[in-house]
Every structure is written in C-alpha cells, then in structure tokens.
Design goal:
This protein is mostly helical and 297 residues long. It folds into two domains: 223 residues, no CATH class; 55 residues, Alpha-Beta Plaits (2-Layer Sandwich). Helix content is 49%, strand content 7%. Helix 4 packs parallel to helix 8. The radius of gyration is 21 Å and the shape is globular.
Length: 297
C-alpha cells in the first residue's frame, strides 16, 4: 500500500478517535447525539463544557442523518455496522438477542480478515501507527527482547472468554486503549486506559520493539489466524533473484518477517514496506494465479 495513503488513513483514524465526543457523530447505532449529562458520564468531566464551547464557537456539529455512527470498536457507514468480532464476542455474550446489524457487521469484518489478512494492522490500526512512531525513539539502552507469537492466541482467548467469569477485557485491546486514552486525555476520564496505553507503548519502547503487535495483540492474532487463507498475498517473483547479501526487505519489516524465501506467513499485513525497499523489484502484492500463462512469475 502506498506510504502516504497508509499514513493518511492512520491519521484519519486517530483524529476520529480523538474527536468522537466533540463531533457527536459517533455512538453505537442508536443515536447521533448524547444529552449533556450522558456526555459527561461517558467521556469524562471535561466533555460537557468542551462540547458546549465547541458548539458556541463553531455551531452545532453536522447532522449526518445516521450515515456515520459507531464506537471505539465499531463504525456504522450508511446502514452497515462494521464491528470488531473480538469485541462483539465479548460485549454481546450476555445478550439473548444481539442486534442483527452488529452480528452482520462482525461477520463482514471476519470476511475482510479472511480476504486480506492483517490489512487492518497495516493500514488502519492507531496502535500500530503509534508503535511505529515509538520505534523511532528507542534509546540505545533499550532491550532487544521478544515474546513467543502464541501469546497473542492466549490474550485472544482471554478477551473472548472473560465474560464467562463476569469480566470484560475489551478495553485492553490495543486499538481500543488508544481511543479511550485519547478521549481520557482530552476530556478528563479513562485514566485506566491512559495507563494501559502508556504501559504498552513503554514496553515497545524499552523491552521489545513492536512486541505488542508481533506477539500480544488479540486482534493481530485473530487476523493472522484467518490470514492463512487470505486472497491478497505478498510473493517474490520466481524469475527475479535477490541481490547478493541483500536483507533490506527483512530489515524493513516491522513485524519481523522475512519475505525473501517465499510468501511470508499469515502474519504479513500487506503494508508494502518491503516492496518499496527491494532494489530488484522482486516482491509483489497480488492474488496468486500461478497457472495462468503469460502471468509474471
Ligand atoms: S497487532 Fe493489534 S495493535 Fe498491532 S497493528 Fe494489529 S490490531 Fe493494531
Ligand atoms: S512482509 Fe512486507 S508487506 Fe508483509 S508486513 Fe513485512 S514489510 Fe509489510
């Protein structure tokens, strides 16, 4: 994916998350505006005065007729409610009749994971964007630790099964922690999310570079699980060789993968960094159609 498009998408997500209460276009499918008391209760003590100040200064936020709604873990676009299946499984576990629109939206997101693997990680996730930012700030004394990749499946199971013992770990999903922490910083609530996000970023900064995304995130684990069957894949062209001793693609991969030997495993998020640095233009992102004559190999 084009670097600037990726950055624009990630910046838009961060801005949307930060502006959720102020824009008031962002609620879970039922209303597009909160009453002042509810606003304060949901987002923190500063939400009400800040939203009122915005309204006095800029006027009321645009009325989008329900075309854009959602929450931290879902987004409603013109009647489609795209929802994170992990959060859904956890949050709707106790409901006898979960809303059909949300169930369909969750299924649609599962299908997107099946088709494109970890594309959410590569193009949209706000934690992934912050993790890459933090990796540029790593001090010399930072450790080069790593965690086993199966840990992500443990955290995935913990988030999905927590409601069975009456708990919820949804706010620990890294992307959710970003949204909640940003709201907390702006509106004065969600101190817990600020601490969770700070802890995750600090671990990436000092203990293991991108360790949260490589090995801890439940969402990354689910996407890589379904990504085994993904349609869009990164592949090296068989007729093009690597330059001698070149490791540029492996060095550029933020998920620690090595695309030289063949299609990288299901962990690949199709971000395209390795494609951009390859001096032989050997790597391509495509739907594999190996048997068609005339297709570049
Ligand atoms: S692994 Fe998790 S936190 Fe990292 S980019 Fe993917 S969804 Fe975001
Ligand atoms: S292998 Fe390439 S496309 Fe896949 S995650 Fe690594 S850098 Fe991105």
């Amino acid at each position: 994916m084009n670097r600037w498009l990726r950055r624009a998408l990630q910046a838009s997500v961060l801005l949307l998350l930060a502006g959720i209460p102020a824009l008031q276009i962002w609620t879970v499918g039922v209303t597009t505006r909160w009453a002042p008391e509810e606003l304060e209760q949901r987002y923190g003590p500063l939400a009400r005065p800040l939203v009122e100040l915005c309204a006095r200064t800029f006027g009321d936020p645009p009325e989008l007729g329900g075309l854009l709604t959602g929450g931290i873990w879902s987004i409603g676009l013109g009647g489609f409610e795209l929802a994170d299946p992990i959060a859904l499984a956890s949050l709707l576990a106790g409901l006898a009749w979960p809303p059909v629109a949300l169930l369909l939206g969750g299924a649609l997101v599962l299908l997107l994971h099946l088709a494109f693997g970890r594309l959410f990680c590569g193009a949209l996730c706000p934690y992934g964007a912050l993790s890459r930012l933090v990796s540029r700030l790593r001090p010399r004394f930072a450790l080069e630790g790593s965690l086993p990749r199966w840990l992500g499946f443990v955290t995935l199971g913990a988030v999905v099964l927590a409601p069975l013992v009456g708990g919820s770990l949804v706010s620990l999903l890294p992307y959710a922690a970003v949204g909640l922490a940003m709201q907390g910083l702006v509106f004065g609530g969600w101190l817990g999310a600020v601490l969770v996000l700070g802890g995750l970023l600090l671990s990436d900064l000092l203990l293991w570079e991108h360790g949260v995304c490589r090995s801890l995130c439940p969402s990354g684990a689910l996407q890589s699980l379904l990504g085994r069957w993904r349609v869009l894949r990164l592949e090296p062209l068989r007729k093009v060789g690597c330059e001698a001793h070149c490791h540029l693609c492996a060095e550029s991969c933020w998920l620690g993968l090595d695309p030289r030997a063949g299609a990288p495993d299901s962990e690949c998020d199709s971000c395209g960094r390795c494609i951009g640095v390859c001096p032989s233009s050997r790597l391509v992102l495509r739907v594999p159609v190996r048997d068609l004559p005339g297709r570049p190999q």
